[in-house]
Specification:
oxidoreductase; 7 strands; 9 helices; SDR_fam; alpha/beta
């Protein structure tokens, strides 16, 4: 199945008009060059963000997203880097503060999913790659983004996890599921530590969303997967992006340590 066929399984993109939820905010997105990260960066700009800082490993794609951000009247800043390396995670925050003087919102989206295989067949190298991308990078984010957010009076952070971290629906992806469960636990602990200082930390847990990762997941029959969801379709990255921006906004001012399942009803079924 190619990308166009996968997107068709999500049906028409719903109308999701922005409402100025992030007006004037300085926002940061990791894993911003494609999929949910790109959609969220664009949604932030559409919601009135003053600036959107983009982190990602692919220079050309990052520059293309930055150009789209600029076209939406927000100021973009793209930094190529790998947030599994602490120096790169720190540099992303330092560049944000150096250019804009503050950080108001952060979406930690960077992640990796292994090739499907029984857990006993997965190597140490694969384990390291999955947990570095999904857990270590989050530790780096918390270490460097939290002080910057608190310095501005609190703000908000959202972590991209997965329904797999709540219930593993994918035989052969045990490392991914375990790493996302760890990310949820980290998010909740950080949320409780920082809520008294006015910093809200939450998570989204996407289900079957049309992204590069889903295309590479090794699922044999995507049509059967889509038909098995309560909505009878897969999700668009833009639908997850809208949920992220709501969690980052003042409209979610009493939501802390929550995992918002953007999954088309998968976990309810």
């Amino acid at each position: 199945m190619d990308e166009a066929e996968l997107i068709a399984l999500a049906g028409p993109r719903p109308a999701l008009p922005p409402a100025g939820r992030l007006r004037g905010k300085v926002c940061l997105v990791t894993g911003a060059t494609s999929g949910i990260g790109r959609a969220t960066a664009l949604r932030m700009a559409g919601e009135g963000a003053r600036a959107v800082v983009l982190g990602g490993r692919r220079q050309a794609l990052g520059e293309a997203v930055a150009a789209e951000i600029a076209a939406l009247s927000a100021e973009p800043l793209f930094l190529a880097g790998d947030v599994t390396r602490e120096a790169d995670a720190a540099a992303l925050v330092a560049a944000t503060l150096g250019r804009f003087g503050r950080l108001d919102c952060a979406f930690n989206n960077a992640g990796f999913q292994e090739r499907r295989a029984p857990v006993a067949a997965q190597s140490d190298a694969t384990y390291a790659q999955v947990f570095d991308a999904n857990v270590r990078s989050l530790c780096h984010a918390l270490r460097h983004q939290v002080p910057a957010l608190l310095a501005g009076g609190g703000g908000a952070m959202v972590v991209n996890t997965s329904v797999s971290g709540l219930r593993n629906p994918n035989p052969g992806l045990a490392l991914y599921a375990a790493s996302k469960a760890a990310a949820i636990a980290l998010m909740r602990a950080a949320a409780m530590e920082n809520a008294p200082q006015g910093l809200r930390i939450n998570a989204v847990a996407p289900g079957r969303v049309v992204t590069e990762m889903m295309l590479a997941s090794g699922i044999a029959d995507m049509r059967q997967v889509a038909a098995g969801l309560p909505l009878r379709r897969m999700g668009h990255p833009e639908e997850v992006a809208a949920a992220v921006c709501w969690l980052l906004s003042a409209e979610a001012s009493f939501v802390v340590g929550h995992v918002l399942c953007t999954d088309g009803g998968f976990l309810a079924g």
